[in-house]
Write a structure and sequence with these properties.
Layout (H helix, E strand, L loop, with lengths): L1 H14 L3 H9 L14 H8 L1 H28 L10 H4 L1 H16 L12 H11 L1 H18 L2 H21 L7 H17 L1 H9 L12 H10 L1
Length: 231
């Protein structure tokens, strides 16, 4: 029990690294929480700091979830048992994978390094789920990118991905001939619902037509001034 708690806490601390906040302050001298939606996540980074910054933050947040499931859980499982065998990941310890991934997602959403005010968890959850079952999340990620590039709404892409993900697993299990454990599908559904609930403010703005789109690669003083006036 203690060892599982250590894995969870370690993954929480990894997930809690506030990439958008640190990138904004170190590279652009901007506190992302003071602009746009005030959310310290990839969506607000895309909106305020542009494509380059948003992409870096998105990849880093994705990497936190992937690192937790593919590296931390493996180290925990194989300590004292010989060399790490990554090919065993899919069959041996799915519960440990889920525990590690959940720790990273919780850390991202409630980071101890940023007064427990973090992002919505979509990118980190995506990385975590990729480490658990890569085929369905690859399908979901493709849809995410299509929606994001076509609509320029990162929030809409995240919500769409969350809706599609558990259905893609069901399709792969019952029509694709891929053996996906039922507990993973249930867990994915609960996680997707959590991400959608976390985006309730974005959903309201999308319905009202007030959600901001991604517009450029560069941070402009005009956009910052516009966000200040809107706050």
């Amino acid at each position: 029990m203690l060892s599982l708690l250590v894995v969870f806490v370690l993954c929480y601390l990894i997930g809690a690294i506030p990439s958008s906040l640190w990138y904004g302050k170190i590279v652009r001298d901007v506190d992302i929480r003071e602009h746009g939606s005030g959310n310290a996540g990839a969506t607000n980074t895309f909106r305020i700091l542009g494509w380059k910054a948003g992409s870096i933050v998105l990849l880093f947040d994705f990497g936190k979830g992937l690192f937790a499931t593919l590296v931390v859980s493996q180290l925990a499982y194989h300590i004292g048992s010989g060399p790490i065998a990554f090919y065993e990941t899919w069959d041996v310890h799915s519960n440990l994978l889920i525990l590690a991934g959940v720790g990273a997602v919780v850390g991202h959403m409630f980071p101890v390094y940023a007064n427990f005010k973090g992002g919505k968890g979509a990118a980190t959850a995506c990385g975590m789920l990729y480490g658990i079952e890569p085929i369905s999340i690859s399908i979901t990620l493709s849809i995410f990118l299509i929606v994001m590039f076509s609509s320029r709404y990162v929030s809409l892409a995240s919500i769409t991905g969350a809706v599609i993900y558990p259905f893609s697993q069901l399709a792969l299990k019952y029509w694709g001939g891929i053996d996906i454990d039922g507990s993973i599908i249930i867990f994915s559904t609960v996680l997707a619902l959590g991400i959608i609930i976390k985006h309730k403010g974005n959903i309201k703005r999308l319905i009202e037509g007030n959600e901001n789109r991604i517009q450029s690669f560069k941070l402009s003083s005009g956009r910052l001034n516009q966000n200040r006036s809107a706050e």
